[in-house]
Please model this.
Amino acid sequence: MKKTSLSALAIITLAGTVSAGVNEHSYEWGNRCSSSDSFDYHVVNRGTTPLDIKVCLERTNGTWSCFVNSNTWPGQVMSDAYVCHGTGKTEFFWRDAGDYNSRFPTEEEMNNR
Model:
């Protein structure tokens, strides 16, 4: 069985830190793209306020594919992040919903690290 490598990083707002947190909810292998190495990843807003969440998944070729879910309500699961050929390595970021002063890293930035 493949393991997920998880690294969580909160985006810091200009006014301070984000008011809530995001946690891994679940993940699945082989459910998409007719590929045994397809990787679905789900996170949940564990806080008390809406958040914007970005999930990035590493592909087997070493590049990243990222997904954003805006205005994710407390308790809501973000479940639309997947890659057809994934490594299981994930990173996710969050900010208060609508706080566009705090920017997420771009896919290009993820790929150039």
About this structure: The chain has one domain: 5-111. The helical segments are 107-111.
